[in-house]
Amino acid sequence: MKIHLGPAGIPITSKGSSTIDGIKRVAELGLDAMEIEFVRGVHMGIEMAKSVGKIAKDLGIILSVHAPYFINLCNPEKLEASKKRILDSCERAHYLGAWIVVFHPGYYGGLSKEKAFEYVEKACEEMNETVEKNGWNVKLGLETTGKVSQFGTLEEEIKIHRKIRNCIPVVDFAHIFARNGGHIDFREVLEKLESLHLERYHTHFSNIEYTEKGERNHLTLGHKKPDFGELAKALIKSRIREITIISESPILEKDSLKMKEILKNIGYNS
Ligand SMILES: [Zn+2]
Hints:
Layout: E1 2-7, H1 19-28, E2 33-37, H2 46-59, E3 62-66, H3 76-96, E4 100-103, E5 106-107, H4 113-134, E6 139-143, E7 150-151, H5 154-163, E8 167-172, H6 173-179, H7 186-194, E9 201-205, E10 207-211, E11 214-219, H8 228-237, E12 242-247, H9 252-265
Parallel strand pairs: 1-12, 2-3, 3-4, 4-6, 6-8, 8-9, 9-12
Antiparallel strand pairs: 5-7, 10-11
Bound molecules: zinc ion.
């Protein structure tokens, strides 16, 4: 099994603030993944994406992209702009050599869960057609969301995947934990992922503060909400062959290093 670790965005200990500085810092720390955050908008040109991608490839860093937060595929008025933000992210991802674009699909709003599902499914179908038509080598990653008002349980996303193979669930363990009122059965989650038989998986991990509505704040690993050690144990016993765990902790890469240590302590050797 191969486990890739790294931060959501440029490491906090990076000397420079560019994406390239960030990737170099990730490599320097002995980590091997980084998520490029387009969360406030897609502000990277194609040429820049190509140069960033080349450096990441040379340094052996696996890239992923997080699409903007302002996305709601369940709202007809926001649909076109939302799809464009995701597709712009996909185009950059292709030139970056990033294999997956992660996004939060949307909010149920006044819709029934079934209706919201239909909207997300249709939007995913259309976006996937564009991805295929352009020959972009990227997967659409639907993140499990942290609020009960948001579309995005693991079950909903698995259902989307069964209809559109290029759409895959991105498990955010903290979000599942928050959404379930402070509970997560790692084995059960991993078994659901295994049943998809994907070549590789992409996930997010951090600790989290929550209310009855779901997530509130991301926390550092030490809070054990949820416990990374438990995930690590479940993971090395699982049949998953390749997985990336992106740290969304406030101290980003420092917690990736802690994850690495925890994995090492239970016998995982990278
Ligand atoms: Zn996210």
